């Protein structure tokens, strides 16, 4: 039973004629200082009912409330401050985590229903840059968090493998590229050609029309255009998979934009059947004025399709294939308007399940305060950043622990984990500047700090040869352990908050605070002192390792046992 539930019941038993137990629980507060107890009940709300001063009410309640579940109840002005029974609560919390292990904080809210998550989604023939990191790691962490609360995530890499950019790339390749150069350095050369196209198009606008014409040939299945497109796609996927392997991220589907090319006619037909399509200056639109939105452009004057048409086909395909409980799109904040239009058109078509589609926006990663842009060639390659982070971790490990076994593997877990953690500790909607030196540090609010804390705790357990026993009743009553026990007690609520808000930073911040609380405890307590509390202290250390490891897992990080 949670502390607030215990307090609410104790107060309610005395004032049940005046407030419901739910009302009592809503009034309860967490005191700012531990000196003021664990839970506080303010008596102000009873002043009108009892026609007495809140201070007097608090004193009278204190005399009537059953003190059995508490160490003490203290009246401070109009507040009743409750001090929980530390031994009883710590015993309950420690034993629950020992019994449930990594499943502590699991819920069955999702009833195993499917949740497609549209994430990562790089463009073919362009490198995966730091700009793709957020969608990839946020989407992966949300998938893990939703799995913990009972959903079945379906991670979809909706590849940008269709569109006018391929017409541009075909034109650029035929004008300025060679097969030999592309084969020797696929992504680098294709990026160079893409950037060159845009630079030259600023001087010669006719290139843009050439690019559109080349894409129309691709849409019409011109053999040369299709062959080049397939080649660009295959070479790109090889490069992408190398980076996803480094990140430790897998996907359930790589169906990208091209997959829906033959599924868009059905969308147009459905819109016509429902009399939703209108002609506007030669183009075909859906009027969304009822939603206070601009018209959705379904077909351009030249008959070409747009993102929204493909996204409608994808949404319908996903509903039919997965019968989803909800469908998530982990896509940058700048696409918010597009998803409002997408949902509105589907709603107009009578698809009420569009209410279960959610755009999960996020802020940008900047470099020196500037937005990263592939088109202008301002690219920070993700693979290079990950390699640099691993090297930085390797250097620090060599300095701190030169005799460590599997140094290379652990450096990879720490370096890559540092980059992922740095992204996820930031609130999803925040924009932040990336500086490698701040990311791969073993001190401060970093991934390596949390991993190092986990490794330190594991070292203590190894030294003591401690194995947690489900049959034993471990209990602690000292102030140092109590702060950690209360923190552990709130773990399930933290998981629900992260899941409800699709917010991995909630988990990352929990991991940092738990690591900080443990290190403070470690610094002030002789954990291995040979007394009657040693086993209970080691049980607390064990429980901390369980939760730190689970936090790291939910963020997509490894938890090395030695560092």
UniProtKB/TrEMBL annotation:
<comment type="similarity">
    <text>Belongs to the class-I aminoacyl-tRNA synthetase family.</text>
</comment>
<dbReference type="GO" id="GO:0005737">
    <property type="term" value="C:cytoplasm"/>
</dbReference>
<dbReference type="InterPro" id="IPR008909">
    <property type="entry name" value="DALR_anticod-bd"/>
</dbReference>
<dbReference type="InterPro" id="IPR005148">
    <property type="entry name" value="Arg-tRNA-synth_N"/>
</dbReference>
<dbReference type="Pfam" id="PF03485">
    <property type="entry name" value="Arg_tRNA_synt_N"/>
</dbReference>
<feature type="domain" description="DALR anticodon binding">
    <location>
        <begin position="450"/>
        <end position="563"/>
    </location>
</feature>
<keyword id="KW-0436">Ligase</keyword>
<dbReference type="InterPro" id="IPR035684">
    <property type="entry name" value="ArgRS_core"/>
</dbReference>
<dbReference type="GO" id="GO:0006420">
    <property type="term" value="P:arginyl-tRNA aminoacylation"/>
</dbReference>
<dbReference type="GO" id="GO:0005524">
    <property type="term" value="F:ATP binding"/>
</dbReference>
<dbReference type="InterPro" id="IPR014729">
    <property type="entry name" value="Rossmann-like_a/b/a_fold"/>
</dbReference>
<dbReference type="Pfam" id="PF00750">
    <property type="entry name" value="tRNA-synt_1d"/>
</dbReference>
<comment type="subunit">
    <text>Monomer.</text>
</comment>
<keyword id="KW-0067">ATP-binding</keyword>
<dbReference type="InterPro" id="IPR001278">
    <property type="entry name" value="Arg-tRNA-ligase"/>
</dbReference>
<keyword id="KW-0648">Protein biosynthesis</keyword>
<feature type="domain" description="Arginyl tRNA synthetase N-terminal">
    <location>
        <begin position="5"/>
        <end position="84"/>
    </location>
</feature>
<dbReference type="Pfam" id="PF05746">
    <property type="entry name" value="DALR_1"/>
</dbReference>
<dbReference type="InterPro" id="IPR009080">
    <property type="entry name" value="tRNAsynth_Ia_anticodon-bd"/>
</dbReference>
<feature type="short sequence motif" description="'HIGH' region">
    <location>
        <begin position="122"/>
        <end position="132"/>
    </location>
</feature>
<dbReference type="InterPro" id="IPR036695">
    <property type="entry name" value="Arg-tRNA-synth_N_sf"/>
</dbReference>
<keyword id="KW-0547">Nucleotide-binding</keyword>
<keyword id="KW-0030">Aminoacyl-tRNA synthetase</keyword>
<protein>
    <recommendedName>
        <fullName>Arginine--tRNA ligase</fullName>
        <ecNumber>6.1.1.19</ecNumber>
    </recommendedName>
</protein>
<dbReference type="GO" id="GO:0004814">
    <property type="term" value="F:arginine-tRNA ligase activity"/>
</dbReference>
<keyword id="KW-0963">Cytoplasm</keyword>
């Amino acid at each position: 039973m949670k502390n607030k539930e215990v307090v609410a019941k104790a107060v309610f038993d005395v004032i049940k004629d005046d407030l419901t137990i739910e009302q009592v629980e809503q009034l309860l507060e967490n005191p700012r200082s531990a000196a003021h107890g664990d839970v506080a009940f303010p008596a102000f709300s009873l002043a009108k009912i009892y026609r007495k001063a809140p201070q007097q009410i608090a004193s009278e309640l204190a005399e009537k409330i059953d003190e059995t579940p508490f160490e003490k109840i203290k009246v401070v002005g109009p507040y009743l401050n409750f001090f929980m029974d530390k031994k009883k609560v710590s015993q309950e919390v420690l034993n629950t985590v020992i019994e449930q292990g990594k499943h502590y904080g699991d819920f069955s809210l999702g009833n195993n229903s499917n949740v497609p998550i549209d994430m990562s989604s790089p463009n073919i023939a362009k490198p995966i840059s730091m700009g793709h990191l957020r969608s990839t790691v946020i989407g992966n962490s949300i998938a893990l968090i939703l799995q913990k609360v009972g959903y079945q995530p379906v991670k979809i890499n909706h590849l940008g493998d269709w569109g006018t950019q391929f017409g541009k790339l075909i034109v650029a390749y035929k004008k300025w590229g060679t097969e030999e150069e592309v084969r020797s350095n696929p992504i680098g050369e294709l990026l160079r050609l893409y950037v060159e196209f845009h630079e030259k198009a600023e001087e010669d606008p006719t290139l843009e029309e050439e690019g559109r014409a080349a894409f129309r040939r691709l849409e019409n299945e011109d053999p040369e255009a299709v062959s080049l497109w397939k080649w660009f796609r295959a070479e790109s996927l090889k490069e992408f998979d190398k980076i996803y392997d480094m990140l430790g991220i897998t996907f359930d589907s790589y169906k990208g934009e091209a997959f829906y090319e033959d599924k868009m006619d059905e969308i147009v037909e459905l819109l016509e059947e429902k009399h939703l399509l209108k002609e506007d200056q030669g183009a075909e639109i859906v009027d969304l004025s009822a939603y206070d939105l601009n018209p959705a452009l379904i077909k351009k004057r030249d008959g070409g399709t747009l993102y929204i048409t493909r996204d409608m086909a994808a949404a319908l395909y996903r509903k039919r294939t997965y019968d989803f409980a909800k469908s998530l799109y982990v896509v940058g904040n700048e696409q918010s308007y597009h998803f409002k239009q997408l949902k509105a058109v589907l709603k107009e078509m009578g698809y009420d399940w569009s209410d279960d589609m959610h755009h999960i926006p996020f802020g940008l990663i900047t470099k020196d305060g500037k937005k990263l842009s592939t088109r202008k060639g301002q690219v920070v390659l993700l693979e290079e950043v990950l390699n640099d982070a691993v090297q930085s971790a390797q250097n620090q490990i060599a300095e701190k622990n030169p005799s460590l076994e599997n140094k290379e593997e652990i450096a990879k877990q720490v370096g890559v984990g540092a980059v992922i953690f740095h992204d996820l500790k930031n609130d999803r909607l925040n924009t932040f500047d990336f500086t490698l030196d701040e990311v791969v540090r073993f001190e401060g609010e970093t991934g390596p700090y949390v991993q190092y804390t986990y490794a330190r705790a594991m070292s203590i357990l190894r030294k003591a040869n401690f194995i947690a026993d489900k049959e034993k009743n471990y209990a602690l009553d000292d102030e140092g352990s109590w702060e950690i026990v209360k923190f552990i007690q709130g773990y399930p609520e933290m998981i629900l908050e992260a899941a409800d808000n699709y917010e991995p930073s909630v988990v990352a911040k929990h991991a940092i605070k738990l690591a900080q609380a443990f290190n403070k405890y470690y610094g002030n307590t002789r954990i291995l002192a040979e007394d009657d509390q040693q086993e209970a202290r080691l049980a607390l250390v064990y429980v901390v390792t369980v939760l730190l490891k689970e936090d790291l897992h939910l963020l997509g990080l490894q938890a090395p046992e030695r560092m």
